Amino acid sequence: MAQHYKLLNWEQVRTIKSNGLVDFGSHTTSHQVVTQIEESILKNELEEPQKLLMQKTGVRTKLFAYPNGNFDKKLRNYLEFCRYQGACTIEPALVNNYCDPYFIPRIGVTGMPLEGLVQKISFTMEMRK
Predict the structure, then answer these.
(1) Domain span at 47
(2) How far apart are the C-alpha atoms of 107 and 109, rounded to whole Å?
(3) Contact at 8 Å (CB) between 106 and 92?
(4) What is the pLDDT of residues 45-96, one digit of tens each?
(5) The CATH number of the domain where 111 resides is what?
(6) Who's near 89: CB < 8 A, 6+ residues apart?
(7) What is the tens place of the pLDDT at every residue in 79-92?
(8) In a domain, 50, yes or no
(9) Does 2 fall in a domain?
(10) Closest of 107, 30, 111, 36 to residue 70, by C-alpha
(11) Is there a domain that residue 1 lies in?
(12) C-alpha to C-alpha distances, 23 to 1, 18, 20, nearest whole angstrom
């Protein structure tokens, strides 16, 4: 059964962004496998969401999340060229001082109940000590 997600509207995005605790990044226009598309299409996939977020929020997005987790060095360099300051992978790991800002790992929490999220964050913080 397909899951349906209720998306935020632009007013909600602006409200959440204004608290300073949450930032919104870019994730391409059409969710293609970006490591396998032509450069002319790639340019649009990376720049259009950036422009839209700027238009709707008044702030330039600095971060990118790789669709499907697909990334490579060429894409990394293109993100830097497009003035992104970093990008998240779906590689499960903790961030450290040696991470390339364009290959930031993350810990998945999709569908996790609040108690599980708190436990995961607590465990992660303990591991860093």
Answers:
(1) 10-128
(2) 7
(3) yes
(4) 999 999 999 999 998 889 999 988 889 999 999 999 989 999 999 888 878 8
(5) 3.20.20.370
(6) 66, 69, 71, 103, 104, 105, 106
(7) 999 899 999 998 88
(8) yes
(9) no
(10) 36
(11) no
(12) 31, 9, 7
- Structurally, the chain folds into a number of domains equal to 1
Report how far residue 32's alpha carbon sits from residue 5's, in angstroms, rounded to the nearest whole number.
Answer: 19
Residues near 42 by beta carbon (within 8 Å), at least 6 away in sequence: 34, 75, 78
Q: Flag whether the pTM goes above 0.70.
A: yes
The 3 state secondary structure assigned to the chain is: CCCCCCCCCHHHHHHHHHCCCCCCCECCCCCCCHHHCCHHHHHHHHHHHHHHHHHHHCCCCCEEECHHHCCCHHHHHHHHHCCCCEEECCCCCCCCCCCCCCCECCCCCCCCCHHHHHHHHHHHHHHHC
Report d(CA 74, CA 36) in Å as an integer. Answer: 11
Q: Which two tokens stand for residue 112?
A: 């996790």
Length in residues, the chain = 129
